[in-house]
Structure formats: C-alpha cells, structure tokens
Write a structure and sequence with these properties.
The chain is of the alpha/beta class. It has one domain: 2-Layer Sandwich (Nucleotidyltransferase, domain 5). The protein has helices at about 65-85, 100-120, 130-135, 145-155, 160-175; strands at about 5, 10-15, 25-30, 35-45, 50-60, 85-90, 120-125. Its main location: cytoplasm. This is Crossover junction endodeoxyribonuclease RuvC.
Length: about 200
C-alpha cells in the first residue's frame, strides 16, 4: 500500500523501501511530467541490473495553475535533495491535439527540468516511443503493458499507478541507454560475442 505524506509543496504519494538495498554505482531519477500529476521514480543501476529505490506521484491538480508550477518545481527539488540522483531522465513533449493541454504539460515539464538543473543534475530526454521500446520491446505498448513490465523488471510487490510506472520506465530507459561495457554484457548475436 503506498505511503501518503503531506508536504508543503503538494501531495506526495510514494513508496520507499523498508530496508536499504545495496547501492549500485549510478542513481537515476525518472520524471513523467503532468499538469495535474507528476510521476517520479528513482533507481540505482550498474548498466546491467537496476534496483528500485523510491517512486510515487506529486499531485498538484487541486491548486490554481500558477501555484501548480511552483509546487512541481519545489516537489522535484525535494526529491532530488532526498535521493541525490546523478542524472535525471524526463519524457519529451509529444504532439497533442489540444494546444492548451500541450502548453500546460510543457510548462509543467519546464518546472521539473529547471528543478533538476538548478540542483546540478544532468538532464536527459526520451520520447514516449523510445521509453516503451526500451521497457516493453515495442513502441506501441499500452499503459497496462508498461505497468506490468515495470513491476516485473524491478520486482515490485504491487503494480504501480500509471504516472509512477511511466517515471520508472523513463529511468530504466536511460539506464539501458547508458551503455554496458563489452565484457559485461550478454551477446545479442554471435557477431557481438567477445571472449
């Protein structure tokens, strides 16, 4: 069951591990920006395996529009301060039929990006299709498939909500794109094999 805690910047709904897992060498924060709910996911990775550290959502939909941006900024800054990621991965804005919705999502995305950059975190961006391809194996995967694969890949005790799963998927996509040293990775075909 997700733990709910009230914060002055908005409402965080998230999970944190009971124990402290062995830290891998690189920590990534994934952000799924939204004008009402922003998902976040923190993983540790060594390029071959990834461990879930924390995830949840920042819910700001009940606040007036300008306040939402400040709360998203403050919320992401608080997550960065708490988990100290090395890098942040954010979903790129895709074409939307409703220009007003696209503008609001773009502004929410900008608030999240600025929070990461101001904290000194390197930011990377990925398209939704790239994220789905990295996690599910197909760029046309639906939300339920992403949620299922995130639960399996990170051995979560329960299925995360859509925004949380998307944020974790973005973090995993970046972990996969970081590259694995030739000797440490499995061969994809006989052409890639090296003793």
């Amino acid at each position: 069951m997700p733990e709910e805690r009230q914060q002055p910047v908005g409402v965080f709904v998230g999970r944190t591990p009971i124990g402290s897992p062995a830290k891998l060498r690189h920590r990534i924060l994934g952000i799924d920006p939204g004008s009402r709910t922003t998902g976040y996911g923190v993983i540790d990775t060594d390029g071959q395996r990834s461990l879930w550290i924390a995830s949840g959502t920042l819910r700001v939909g009940e606040y007036p529009w300008p306040d939402r941006l400040g709360r998203i900024f403050d919320g992401v800054a608080a997550i960065v301060a708490e988990h100290a990621p090395h890098e942040m991965a954010v979903e790129q804005l895709i074409f939307a039929r409703d220009p007003t919705a696209a503008l609001k999502i773009g502004q929410a995305r900008g608030a999240a990006l600025c929070a990461g950059l101001k904290s000194g975190v390197t930011v990377h961006e990925y398209s939704p299709k790239t994220v789905k391809l990295a996690v599910v194996g197909t760029g046309g995967a639906d939300k339920a498939q992403v949620q299922h694969m995130i639960r399996v890949l990170l051995a979560l005790p329960e299925t995360p909500c859509e925004d949380e799963a998307d944020a974790l998927a973005i973090a995993l996509c970046h972990a996969h794109s970081m590259g694995i040293p030739a000797r440490g990775r499995a061969s994809a075909s006989w052409r890639d094999w090296r003793p």
